Amino acid sequence: MSELFVWPTALVRRRPLERAGIRQQKGERDMGKDVVGIAGCGAMGLPMALRLADAGYEVWGHDVRPAAEFGGFASRMVADAAGFSSRCNIVISVVRDAAQTRALLFGDSQGIVRGPQIPDVLVISSTLSPRFVRQLCEELPEGVALVDAPMSGAPYRARSGTLSFMLGGSDDVLERLIPLFRVMGQDIFRMGSVSMGMTTKVLNNYCAATSVVATHRVLGMARALGLDQRYLLKVMKVSSGSNWFADHIDQIDWAREGYSASNTVGIVEKDVESVLDAISEHPAVPHAPLDDALLASLRTLEPLEID
Q: In angstroms, rounded to a whole number, what is the distance separating the alpha carbons of residues 209 and 191?
C-alpha cells in the first residue's frame, strides 16, 4: 500500500514581479521563477487562477472563449496557445475531458507541447481515466514532467481556496508544486506515482455520484409523501443518510441541475465512465449491476425541486 501524506497548512506567497522590482516584457518567460498557466478557466479553473494571483503568483489563463467573458481576469487571458505556452513553465490543465486535453496538448489549433517553448511541468487537474494519464506519460515530449492533481470540492470551494487535491507524481516535482496547491486547497494528499492521484479521484467520484442520484431520489419521494424536504435534509445531515451532496446542497452551484451532456451532471457521468475504464483492465473486478444503474440514473435526472 502506498504511503499517504497530508501536507501541513502553511501558506506560501510570492510577490508579483513589479513588487519585487523586476519588469518583464510581455510574452517573455523569466527562467528564474515559476510562471503558472491555467488552461480551461471555467467554473473551477478561473477561481483557481484568481487564488494564485491574489497570493502573488504570476498567472496567465487560456481558454477557447473570448477574453471579455473573464471579467477582471480578462487582461491575463492569452487566446493564442503558443503565446500562452511560451509564458508559462507550469501549466495546470482544468479542461473538461480527455478530448479537450488532447486538443490542448497536441491539437493543430492549440498544441501547447508542440511549440518551440513548452512548459516543463504539466499538471492535469481534470478528472480523467487513470489509463489515459498513463498514456500521456508516453506521449509527452522529453523534459515535460507530468503530475496528476485532480481536485474535489465544487466551485464554491475553489473560490474559498479549500479544495482537496489528490496528487500523483515524482517527489521532486511535487515538492516544487506544493506551495501552489496550498494556495488553492486545504487538504493535499500525495497518493504515489503518476496516475495514483487520478485513481483516487475517480473512485471518490463514483461514491459522490451515488450520493447525487440517491439524494435526488429521496427528495422526490419526500415531496410525493408530503414530508418537508428541508427537514429531511436536516435529519440526514446528522444521521446515517449524511452525504456530501445532500450536506452541501445549497453551496453546490449545480445541485439543482438535471442531466445534460454539457453541464456538470454530464461531467459526473464522465467521471463514472472514467473509473469503469480504469477497472476494465482488471478482470478480477467484474462489472457490477450498480455500474449500469448509476449511469442510467444520472442520465435520467430531472432538475431538482426543493421547497
A: 22
Other CB atoms within 10 A of residue 8 CB: 8
Which long-range contacts does 152-155 make (Cβ < 8 Å, 24+ apart)? 152/201, 152/204, 152/205, 152/208, 153/185, 154/248, 154/251, 154/252, 154/253, 154/254, 155/43, 155/44, 155/47, 155/253
Predicted structure pTM score: 0.88
CB 131 within 8 A of CB 124: no
> Does the pLDDT value for residue 1 go beyond 70?
no
Which among 201, 234, 237, 270 is annotated as catalytic?
Answer: 201
The residue among 54, 10, 9 whose CA lies nearest residue 36 is 54
Backbone angle region of 151, left / alpha / beta, with phi > 0 → left and psi within -120 to 50 → alpha: beta
Burial 247-256 (b: 16+ CB within 10 A, else e): bebeebeebe
Task: Return d(Cα 185, Cα 181) in angstroms, integer.
Answer: 6
Which cell numbers in the block locate residue 270?
464522465
- DSSP 3-state of 189: strand
Q: Is the pLDDT of residue 19 over 60?
A: no
* Catalytic residue list contains 234: no
pLDDT band at 37 (very low <50, low <70, confident <90, very high): very high
Does residue 17 have a pLDDT over 70?
no
Q: Give me the domains of the chain, ranges plus CATH numbers.
A: 5-199 (3.40.50.720), 207-299 (1.10.1040.10)
Q: By C-alpha distance, which of 292, 265, 146, 285 is closest to 209?
A: 265
pLDDT for 68 equals 96
Q: Give the 3-state secondary structure of residue 174.
A: helix
Q: Report helix angle 130-139 to 196-225, nearest 10.
A: 150
Mean pLDDT of 7-19: 34
